[in-house]
Structure prediction request, 352 residues.
Amino acid sequence: MSEQPRMIYLENISKEYDGVTVLDDINLYIRKKEFVTLLGPSGCGKTTTLRIIGGFEYPSTGRVMFEGKDITDMPPYKRRVNTVFQKYALFPHLNVRDNIAFGLKIKKMSRGEIDKRVDKMLNLVNMAGYGKRSVDSLSGGQQQRIAIARSLVNEPEVLLLDEPLGALDLKLRKEMQLELKSMQQQLGITFLYVTHDQEEALTMSDTIVVMNAGHILQIGTPKTIYDEPANAFVANFIGESNIIRGTMVRDELVNFSGVDFPCVDSGFGENTPVDVVVRPEDIVILGEDIGQLTGTVKSVLFKGVHYEMMIECGDFTWKVHSTTMQPTGSRVGLSIVPFNIHIMHPMKEEAK
Prediction:
């Protein structure tokens, strides 16, 4: 996506409500044709960011730029963006076709052009043949498709989606994740998506923006965010992690749990306190006598595709995911290859 030009730029955006800061001097740019996800816990500022881009909120300080033009004070209806909300806000007195066509009729388009665009949208969201149905007769997933079609029919340059899958059951959510990504790729427009669901973000995004307490903590591809978290918050929020305090002995050598481990990180200095992150799936269980660490299996939980085992090694209990189960109480060895050890600067207490 790096070759695409920047479309939206948030410059030093802050937002306060009644003296409480919900966004604190954030800077963010979004490229054309990119699927960007704002990810973070409730109250982190992601929806406020989306609403500022959409024009439903105005920043306390900073500017919103759209292709080089300042749109900070521009009302929503003049912006080249459309929004899909979690509560679909469909018109119950209109059928499916008229719901999708509503914005086009406001623009006083010709009947022929309206019919052409509505038919295209119904096909895109796999709802052809549903045009005359009442929206109240549709399932939650079908209503969500119609809400998306109604937004896309206006051919926006950016589609803003505020947790649109939150009301759906798990199976349907997973199906719609793939459908949304497919729609975005077919249409070639920019999607800005808000969610607190890490799996959703990893599945659909080109770029993930991890937020917490009004700050942007990390921006990157799903693989970068998962494999190279910037701090303990990101490591814990994206997937599951073992995080243990250690000491960077020197470049490419770290000590934790009383053992020196080769790693691939450098630039932390010598004998420097660090945080060490190891994903549960990156720990290999071996025989007791051949692992780098030795421990006792304290609990075993079957998770469907793997077993989750808690293995106590001295003062630290490791979470390990493996397709091979070791019984509770057994002694095992643990091995971690250098590439699967990620080193971070310890996170400041106030940022946790």
Observations:
- The longest helix spans residues 170-187.
- Helices lie at 46-54, 96-106, 111-124, 140-152, 170-187, 198-204, 222-227, 232-237.
- The chain has eight helices and 20 strands.
